[in-house]
Design brief:
Blueprint (H helix, E strand, L loop, with lengths): L4 H10 L13 E6 L7 H20 L8 E6 L8 H10 L5 E6 L1 H4 L3 H6 L4 E4 L13 E3 L6 H15 L3 E7 L2 H14 L5 E8 L7 H10 L3 E6 L1 H14 L7 E6 L5 H7 L7 E4 L12 H15 L9 H18 L4 H10 L2 E3 L2 E3 L13 E5 L16 E5 L17
Parallel strand pairs: 1-2, 1-3, 3-4, 4-5, 6-7, 6-8, 8-9, 9-10
Antiparallel strand pairs: 10-13, 11-12, 13-14
Length: 412
Amino acid sequence: MARFLVAAAIAFPLWLGTPGLAQSEGPIRIGFSIAQTGPLSAAGKSGLLALQIWRDAVNARGGLLGRLVELVVYDDQSNPAMIPSIYTKLLDIDKVDLLVGPYGTNQTAPVIPLVKQRDLLLIANFALDANAEIMHDKYFNNLPFGSAKHMAAPFLSLCKKLGAMTIAIVATDSESSQNMAAGMRAELKGHGLQTVYDQSYPPNIVDFSSIVRTVRSKRPQAVFVASYPAESVAIIRAVNELGIGDSVMLFGGGMVGLQYANVLEALGPLLNGVVNYNSWVPERTLDFPGMRDFLTRYQARAKQAGVDQLGFYLPPFDYAIGQILEQAVTATKSLDHKALATYLRGHEIKTIVGNIRYGPTGEWADPRNLYVQFQGIAGKNLDQFRSPGRQVIVAPDAFKTGDVRPFNQRNW
């Protein structure tokens, strides 16, 4: 019971509704966990704020089905071991009507067996390949990347453009990073790349000097890294301090954290030349209807709340989770999980991150895998990241806003 004390403090105020809205029934309760502490909390706090903004907006419009929307939220502390008991509590004690998944692949994996056993709808929140084996038919993932193989393809196309023929793979020993690395390995042969180094490391290590030196000795022409936030920061610092070798034309790939405002501000020009995945950046090809309005609202509240000041990575997609649920509930006039799943499987959903259609596995039918290159970063001024041209989309071609530049020629 003690492990719920921190979570309960977060959940309680979120049960409060919008004053003055008359209801014939009780509120519609949407339950989930999202990291407010631990290594994923920088994104988790911003994602929670986005869902609160959606809740306030939908309640101002009269709620759903004439009822208030309440969020019942627990801090999972970035710890997957807490997830089963939290979601069991949400269902059996809190009696929530709808479920949203926790943020992240590692956190989502323990939820899927539970929701499948109970035949419940789950809107997942940035989980990579989490449903690939279980194949729950009421699972819908709000992640634009599709599968790990989908994620690998644009990175490998950049290798080809730069003429890279050899690659090193470095990955955290965790489900998310290992999924990304597995997707990369599966696609290498088809792109004509040879692996010269492939190593996993324990989570949360901070000294990457030996790994960087070993990678450098192998003289790869591309380096793919799958890492979590603290590790990503340590790796970038080690590469800048020690050098990765003049053979490396492409560096980055799957580094979680290089999308967070606090990390961007802390690393500043050390990021120049790195190519990494992302979900949204302020480039012209991603100017979807409603996005700018959302960011204006989010950034005003983020400043007051002291959370991620940019809100580019997770917040738009968490706001879109609310839109997905709102559209399905409104269209079906129901909270029945089977009816909602049937609707989501058969209709295109309009959101601020673009229109979404779901495929048979609950992933986006048309994945959008963005790779951006940090270019022209000067100093540690966060405002520079609000402007186009600093996180240039270099792949895929459909969203491209600039050309990839070789990492080993960073003195542009």
